[in-house]
Amino acid sequence: MLIILAVIFISGVLIKRIIPENKLDAWANVSSIVGGIATAISLLWAAYTFYEGAKIQKELAASSIYQEHMKLSIENPDFANGSLAPKPPGIGGSVADKMRYEKYRWYIGHALYSFESIFDVMPGDENWDSTAVQFIKGHSEYIRDSFPCNRYTDRIQQLVKEAIGRDCSR
């Protein structure tokens, strides 16, 4: 901004010294047009940088949400890998097994809620859709059988249907 003001000031001083008095009206018209063009370019640049900044903020927000989920996955690798995940303990299962399975259920719920939040920030992003589908496929045994996916957004329900063929609306 200071550079633009300095250029305008220096240009004014040079025009005043170089151009004869009887030609100043013509130069005033030219400088008005040039000033208008410079203003338009500045507005376009400001809009572009605002748009790019907003886009970067959305990407950072989505990555931050997913990072939190990945932190849970690192802390609970047996939950992160669907083939290692606990199975329903059954009627005679121990309290510890029931608590572990309950924790796994909350892990899945947290993951899908994280994806919902990401989709709010980055709607229609194919990479995030693919990541969610891979997660759902990896935990299909639980999600297919007993997970209450009808509590989630239409987008999550659609991805569950696409990934494992379960209709969550039932």
Write up what this structure looks like:
- By secondary structure, this protein is mostly helical.
- It has two domains: 1-54; 76-170, no CATH class.
- 76% of the residues lie in helices and 0% in strands.
- It has seven helices and no strands.
- It has helices at residues 2-18, 24-75, 77-80, 95-121, 126-138, 140-145, 154-164.
- Helix 2 (24-75) runs antiparallel to helix 4 (95-121) and helix 5 (126-138) crosses helix 7 (154-164).
- It is rod-shaped.
- The chain starts with a helix and ends in a 6-residue tail after the last helix.
- The model has no long low-confidence stretch (mean pLDDT 86).
- Averaged pLDDT, please? 86
Count of spatially separate domains: 2
Low-confidence stretches: none
Binned, the helix content reads over 70%
Structural class by SSE content: mainly alpha
Strand residue content: under 5%
Order of helices and strands: HHHHHHH
Total helical segments: 7
Give the gist of this structure.
The protein has 170 residues and is an all-alpha fold. The chain contains 7 helices and no strands.
